[in-house]
Amino acid sequence: MKKVYPDAHAALAGVISDGMTIMAGGFGLCGIPDLLIEAIRDSGAKNLTIVSNNAGIDGVGLGVLLETRQVKKMISSYVGENKTFAQQYLAGELEIEFNPQGTLAERIRAGGAGIPAFYTKTGYGTLIAEGKETREFDGEMYVMERGLFADLAVVHAWKGDTEGNLVYRKTARNFNPMMATAARVTVAQVEHLVQPGEIDPDHIITPGIFVSRIVHAPNAAKRIEQRTVRKAA
């Protein structure tokens, strides 16, 4: 089966529909699958539930889906850089399910591993635990969290081969690998696309069995979320 598609729109053709749950990889603006996110926007799909560590910023990343009001619900850890998100949430137009960052990561990992639920101490006794099952283990109280599994995962990789084996680089490794395992269909945008055998097997992070479709993204934007420099002398 050929996994490589000519562009992001072709890679998502026949996959996107209203009401889907979509995982979007990345950390801040690092390692976000921006071409695939823009293709989701262009599809016009609405009432989407998006699982992502953050919501991008205005006009970048998931921010483009918020601007077109295609997102019904966000399952996230941090959304503080997006004014559009704040406006829609405060107006009651957007639902948010907040998670501690480690809990969100583990919920995704658990979903990919076929684990329906797990217990964590994080969040016990806080608003995070409201309405959730709690249990005592060895004298400590824990909160039960459900694993997450999506209809679609869109991820960004630094290098990949045409069989779908992926390698991530530095901070872009956050969330992308676990999301790639936790969806019915995973589509990857890859900066450096190579032939099978050109990646050392010991360097592969996501095996190709998890990846359904690939699009080559050789000119990926390297944006800086908050630029900090020294003041001029």
Automatic annotation (TrEMBL):
Keywords: Transferase. The keyword Transferase applies. One of its GO terms (molecular function) is CoA-transferase activity. SUPFAM superfamilies: NagB/RpiA/CoA transferase-like. InterPro entries: 3-oxoacid_CoA-transf_A, CoA_trans_fam_I, CoA_transf_BS, NagB/RpiA_transferase-like. Gene3D superfamilies: Glutaconate Coenzyme A-transferase. Belongs to the 3-oxoacid CoA-transferase subunit A family. This is CoA transferase subunit A.
